[in-house]
## 1
Amino acid sequence: MARQIGEVIVDLQNISLRFGGVKALTDISFNIREHEIRSIIGPNGAGKSSMLNVINGVYHPQEGKIIYRGEERRKMEPYEAAGQGFARTFQNIALFKGMSVLDNLMTGRNLKMKATLVEQAFFWGRARNEELEHRKKVEEVIDFLEIQHIRKTPVGRLPYGLQKRVELGRALAAEPNLLLLDEPMAGMNVEEKQDMCRFILDVNDQFGTTIVLIEHDMGVVMDISDRVVVLDYGKKIGDGVPDEVKNNPEVIAAYLGTQH
Amino acid sequence: MFYREAGQFKTSYGADQQILPIRQDRIGMVVLLAVAFLGVPMFASEYWFSAILIPFLIFALAALGLNILTGYAGQLSLGSAAFMAVGAYAAYNFQLRIEGIPILVSFLLGGVVAAGVGILFGLPSLRIKGFYLAVATLAAQFFIVWCLTKFPWLSNNSSSGVISAQKIIIFGHEFNSPQDKYLLVLGIVVVLALAAKNLVRGNVGRSWMAVRDMDVAAEVIGFRIMRTKLTAFAVSSFYCGVAGALYAFCYLGSVEPDGFSLELSFKILFMIIIGGVGSILGSFVGAAFILLLPVLLDVLLPALSETLSLPVDGASISHIQTMIFGALIMFFLIVEPHGLARLWQIAKEKLRLWPFPH
């Protein structure tokens, strides 16, 4: 079945974010449609990561509105965003280093677990059932990402590329509606990048997950994105399908510089 | 050679998620429990019960409590002894003021009161971390000890806050002899240790470790930082509180607030550092190391100096003891900074492959 791009699910309107006197984001508006792969690109320090942090509630913009499925949300903490089905990965891997791959992935299921402390202490009732039921789900993610051989390994011992994959797994284990990926391919070699691209496309295709992607590899971005938004110095300078963005003079200027 | 898991296949996730997935470990645990519950009471002397085994179990429980907070949830605390004091005094007051309340219920409630106090003193952890938090928990240490001396009601108006624990009677049986007390303490410690193991391998344990390892990511994946930290403080203080109640009722018989000093808190902290931060086993090993090594040196050194007929007197022996104790602590920390439990784990991994290198 061909993937159908649906309605707008997240609409960001006139977002401005300041840290003291520093303007991280200025008056940015764009939207994200259901099932699409939406990339955010821009030079270093353009505000891409800040944008993701605004979307999942780590930062609270001073101005602007975020409309999620037709409802405006004012201020939201990250765990509330997680409850709405937002999951993300980080630019610098943010795995739980002391835990095994399996446990890291199980943390992705935490919002679906309802057992009380006492039930968990005696591994009884809901605690037991949930643990087994969610293990099954997590195993599906493990199969999907082809990391069966490392499921019991502490993540601190894994090479970089695998850690990135496990981090994607942790986000996927939450069965998100919206997946925010912050440079999932940074520092990878060509093969690892190809694998990661395949996983991203498969997630999008098989589960219909909407994906917001920050990436510096233009080849990848132009290949897999449905639409691209370009930021520079906290301002939006371009927005559209990859071909449009590629030929936008402002974007070219931001990346290559202009003739004076 | 015999420590092999070859041929032990897991066919369900339940079997794979057991606490002891390897058969040899399960047999080992059964043997250990049999020795503790049946073997030891048959052979141990009164001295062993009341001077070694009972304090070992009680401190292991307190160390377990601190390990939940510091090892699993990553919140450094120097108030463990104070939470023990809360447990001891609360259990005493429940016994004193509520007619006919079962002793086990008082222990439990003592733990619950300690958990409440723990939550209160855990509130600063929402804003401060690491060493600064440790200093904030010092406030708990001094404030609670001060409170217990200051308000005579808490110690039923006894002078300088000394309390004498009531008799322990369960279902009409009085736990009087050291052997009885040992079995009671052992039973409680085994149940609570199992509960702790279940907690740390479940969702709440994962939330603690997630907050410890990377708090931003923990919040983004859906854990609530505040609730997670306060749960850790509550559970940790509960364990310390029950340990404190047992300390008063089953070990010393009468305690005073100054007995729960900062020194005791440090002792518990050393136990988990030596034993292994973030390890249930480590709490037991650490408690054994800190409590039993001085006893061992106490026995060995005079015997040694006698056999070698060295001209040393009693005072020098006790100095040498302290020096050896300190040197051993440093030695183990250099060999394995992650504690004795990690050494055990490495030994097991090696044993699985022995005699092959990999």
Note: Chain A touches chain B through 40 residues (CB under 8 Å).
## 2
Amino acid sequence: MSVSDTEKKPMQKSPSDIPAVKVQDVSITYRTTFERVPTFKSALVRFGRGERAVREVKAVQNVSFDVNHGTTIGIIGANGAGKSTLMRAVAGILPPTSGRIEVHGRVSTLLSLGVGFNAALSGKENVVLGGLAAGLSRKEIEARYEEIAEFAELGDFMEMPMRTYSSGMFSRLAFSVAVHMDPDILLIDEALSAGDASFKTKAAAKMSELVTNSRTMFLVSHAMSSVRELCNDCIWLHKGKLMMRGEPNEVIQAYTKFLQVGEAEAVSLEDL
Amino acid sequence: MNATSVDEEFNPSVHVYEPHKVGLPALRPYFKALWQRREFAAEMSRTNIRAANTNTFFGQVWLVLNPLLLAAVYYLLVDIIAGGSSKIDAGERFAHMCGGLFAFYYFSGAMTAGAASVVGGGKLLMNQSFPRMLLPLSAVRTAFFRFLPTLVVYLVIHLAMRQRLHWAMLLAPAFLIMLTVFAAGMGMIFAALQVYFRDTTSFLPYFVRIWLYLSPVLWFAEQAPAKFKGFIQYNPLYPLIGGWADLLVRGDIPKWQMWAGGGFWAIVAFVIGSLFFMSREREFVVRL
């Protein structure tokens, strides 16, 4: 599961010199209500008291960076640093509150596990549904379905309702779908945490294959070793702010130092 | 999905995401993307129909069993418990009640499912970017296909009650289409409202129930209770279900006011619903 040094060359420029993803001074603020689920009653009560409903959560603050084609960029940071929010913004799911994001290419997402899967439907139906939602045609999905099923190694389970799946099977299918959507830009968020050892190896190999085909990949992970091995660029977010950008080794070092956790200990805690 | 540079929106190769101004997305690319992904809405509704009754003993038979039980319950309520008003045209009354009830339950089912589609589609919304309007529209499609077997049930009841077949019955689908458009519009309004006020879910069934009693379902349109006479024409379902039942049950071609009223309400609900939905949909993810 190691990637040769040639694949780790930092940031080959694409012919056109246009970055795959351009994030310019982006801030994302969630405006959430005080209560967990907004209700009419609490809105009335608030209205009576003349209070405002929103509490602002600044998930991402003034982050700017460019990512060139063919880069595998790791995004690290503590829980709640804004990593997933940033990924959702790049995928076009969350609108930025200010700033501008420019994406050149087709994005495929593997965000928090269970990508829109409906548990009552079979794995196969979910693959078709997910592909159609992503804007593929039925023919394109059929062409990819065999590969997806083979890669996920679920066998007969592909025809069974997904409520019968284990969490590992879920993540295997989700990963398989994401990488076979033929994306120009692949967003992966904590994808490998649930698969078993052999699937993790296979997934890592698939990812490095995508990287050699000069796909652009965003890898959000708490597993420093996989960031170190797969990525040739790295971003460290902390509480919504961009702390550092650079060589994975350097950034990881700074991050682990920041967390005041010894390198050795951090490695032993990882799951990949 | 909130690109302000118009032509790039939903374009597969270049996307620009900028803070959206309050208001509508660019309509042309929006509807283009909506049309491109119509297959997604269709597939979602197909799989939902397939998955809906897989755990039950009767399975898809429920599509026929539901309207039969519904007719039985209201027969008990109106003709037996309440004593029925007249025994003269009992067959026609019963056929009318069934035709009206089935249409009303189709409408309320489409509206309620459309309303629940956005909040219920949580994970899909969080992880995929697509025109959100596909969700309520898909729910309406589901309701429509679940309604089709009901039409056969009605036809059987119609014949069993010794009602005659009229050529005018063939015009009834026109009102069904208006009713569908109206339901889609209402579904979108409530879907967007439900994101902001979750209480809408609990409130909606009572709203629907009152609407049932205020509509010409359990009584003929022209026999509206005296109390309702003053304002009944403001009920959108008065022309929609009234016209439907007139054509279907008695083969009477409704007056032009019924046609105009039905078309008016359908278009108004759909336009307001879709504009409201589109202007809000980019905020849904943040609110879920």
Note: Confidence is low (pLDDT under 50) at residues 1-11 of chain B.
